[in-house]
Amino acid sequence: MLSFKKFNKRYALLFAGLLLAIGISVYYVSYLSFLDKDNLIIPQETEVSKQDSKIKISADTDIVQKITYLKCNDEEILQTKPTENLVGLNIYQLKKVYQGWEIDKFDTNEVNMTLKVDSYCREHANNVFIGVHDGHVAVFYGKPGYKPIVKETTSIQVNKLMPQDVEDLQHGMVVQSKEELLRTLEGMQSR
Predict the structure, then answer these.
(1) Which residues pair with 176 in a beta bridge?
(2) 135 in helix, strand or coil?
(3) Gap between the Cα atoms of 77 and 51, Å rounded
(4) Is the pTM of this model over 0.85?
(5) CB 46 within 8 A of CB 105
(6) Bridge partner residues of 106 (DSSP)
(7) Using an 8 Å Cβ cutoff, are 86 and 75 in contact?
(8) Other C-beta atoms within 10 Å of 147: how many?
(9) For residue 190, which phi and psi values (nearest 5 degrees)?
(10) What pLDDT digit, counting tens, does each position of 7-48 carry?
């Protein structure tokens, strides 16, 4: 025979559990009733949520590649048609081919992908010229007039150079090699 104390404990636990279940149900029903259907936050369909392995690249898909060069903030955008080895790939297979790229959009009409490179663009990386910066002779990445980036400022003061050198520097003196750069700077220093 159950003792009166044990009997009461069981009923007390059962009653507490029943109250808890009723409380949760009331909270849930009241929560739903307060929600306005117009204010429901429905996740927008984004390109990312449309990722589907059934969508594949076709021969007519435009491949748009955007490369951002972090050291000069230049962007390069290339638009091409897929090569044979890309036709038929889904987004997951494409991600394996283009590791490091971010796929911004993927559908049968267009694939947009971006890559951030911690370097200079080709224009800045492949071209160097000598010019003037803060009254000193300086070496710049890029071409004269095209968003020059100071690579190095020398100790050579422009006001101590010959007028013809100053005029050349103000237009930007393009150099083709490191040797030509050093030779030109040494020549200016010795004058």
Answers:
(1) none
(2) coil
(3) 23
(4) no
(5) no
(6) 111
(7) no
(8) 14
(9) -80, -10
(10) 677 777 788 888 888 888 877 777 666 655 555 554 444 444
